[in-house]
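TL;DR need C-alpha cells for one chain.
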Amino acid sequence: MASTLNLFLVDEDPVFRLGLRIWLEQRQEFNVIGEASSSEAALTQLTDLQSAATASATDAGTSEVAPTVDVVILDLGLGQGDPNQMPGLQLCATIKQQFPNLAVLVLSIQGDPVLREAAKQMGADRFGLRGLSVRDLARLIQQTAVSSPPSRVGSTEDIALPERTEGPVAYLYRTSLEQIDEEMAAIEQLASRRRLPYWYRLVLAGKYRELRAARWLIQQILPLPQEGQKIPQSDDEFITATSALTAPESISARTAAELPATATRTAGGAIARLRTPMPVPVGDVRSRVCEAVFRKLQFPLDNRSSIPLEIDILRSDKSRELLYTVLSTFETLLDDLQQAAVLPGQLDTKTPIFLHDLWEAVIVDFFGRYYTPPVDGLERPMAAVLQQDAATVQAEILLGIPEVPSLLSHLLFQSPLEIEGASYLATTPEALRRSQFLLENLLIQIACAVIQPVLNRYPDVEALKRSLYQRRIISTRDITRFRNDLSWRYRMDTLVNEPKAMFESNYRLFALTPEGIRTHTIYAPRQEELASLSGVQYAVTLALEARDAIAPRLRSTISLVGSSVVFVLTEVIGRGIGLVGRGIVKGVGSTWQEIRFRQRQRDET
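>> reply
TL;DR here they are.
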C-alpha cells in the first residue's frame, strides 16, 4: 500500500484553492500540508517545510518526523495580474532548481501545446488542465509523484500506471475526444468568470454547442473503446458550462441549463438517442453530478432570490466553505450507504436518518467537535448545543427537502428519474441535470439547517459575529431584523406557499447560477400531500380553487359591464351632452349677433 502523498498548492484564486484542498483531503491517498497565493510565499514555505523535514530526519532524538512535500500543484497563470510577482513558469523553474527532487504538476486554463512545451522546458513533471475531473486529477498527481525521483522514504511503485497499447482507431478516438474535452474545459473556465459581455457569452455558448456536436459525431462514427480501456465522458457533459454560458437573469421553467440540450436535439431519432443510456461505468453518474455541483460552488453565492436564507448572514468565504463541507460530507455518507448494502426500496425509510446524520456531521466538521464559544460563562461544546435543535430543524427544513430518495437512488443505483411525467434513464442529459438541480438544492437547504440553530442559540455572540457574519448584518438590531424576516418566511411557507405548491404540483428549488443563488420550480405530483392538508392550509387551496373557478367568469362579467358603461357614457350620454352643448353655443352666438345688430341700428339713427 503506498503511503500518503503530501501536496502543496500554489494558486492566486482562494476559491479554487479552498475547493481543491477540501476535495483532495477527503481522499486517503492525499494530504495537503501547505498552500500559498504568491510565488514569494510559496518559496518561503517550501524552504521551511523541506528544512524542517531534513532536520527531523537527521535528528535521532526527534519523536515526530516533519512531513516532506511530495508534489507541488502550481497554477501556470500565477502572477498575470501582478507584474511585480514572479510568473508561474519562472516559479516552476526556481522550485526545480532549489529542490531538484520535488515533483511539480502545472495546471493551466488552456491546453495549448506551446504552454505544455514551455512548462516541460521549465522542469514541470506533468501538465494538466484546471477543468480536469477529480478522478483524472488524482491520477495525474499520482503519475507526477512517480515520474519525479522519490524524495521520501517508501516506494511508490504500486502507484505507477502502466501504459496501454492501443490500435489506430482507439488512438484516434481517444485523442480526438481529449482535444475536444480540453477546448470545452477552457470554455467552461472562461465562462465561469464574472462580468463577461452578454454578446461574448453567446459566442462562447455557440462554440460550446459546436464542440458537443463534434464529440457526439465522433462517438457515433468511431467504435467505442474495448472493455478495460478508458471510456471518455459522453456528450451529455453538462458539468459547468450549461448555466455559466447561457444563464439569464432568473431561472424559469425552461432553465438556462437546458439550452445546450435542446440545441443538440434534432428531429426523429435524435431524441431517442439522447434518452439511450451511454456506456457509463458504475459510479460515474455520481461523480459527474457531484463534480458539476462542486464546480458551480465557485460561482458567487449572493442570494438573488426574494426568499431570505439563513446562510445570507454568513461572509462569502464562510458560506462557500460551509457548502463545500456539506458536499464532501454528502459523498462520505453516500459511501456509507453503499457499504451498508442498502436496497433501493429502503431509501424512503432511510432518507430521514440520512438527512439527520448529514446535518449532524456537517455541524461537527464546520464548527468543530469541541469548539466552545464564550456564552454567559458557561462552557459547553457548540456542536452538542446545536444538535439539541434536531427535532425543530428536522420538521422545518430537513423533511421538506424534495425528491431526496430519488436523488439517492439515482446516484447510488443509477435509477431512472421521473421528469415532467416521463421516465429518463440515469445517463441521459435530462436525468443528470435534474439530479444536479436536486443536489444543489439539498446542499443549500442543509447549509441553512446548520445555521438556523446558530441564530437561535447564539444570536449575539461577538466571537461568532466577527468570524462568521457579514459586516452589514453584525449589530444586534440587524440580526434581530434578519431573524424576524426568516420567521415570517417560514410562516408564509407553512400557511401559503407550501399549500399553493402542492395545489400546483411543483417544488421550489434553490439553484447555483453565475449571478448567485436563485429559485426555480420543477413539476412533481403531490396529490397525497394535498389530501392530507387541513385548517388554514386547506383553506388556502380552497381559495385558490375558488379563484380559478370564479376569476375567469368574474373577469368576463366585469369586462362586459365595463364595455356597456363605456358605450352608454360615450354613445348616449356623451352625444346628448354634445348636442346640448352645441345648442347652448348656437343660442349664445345668435343672441350675441342680435345684440350687435340692434346696437348698430341705434348708432346709425
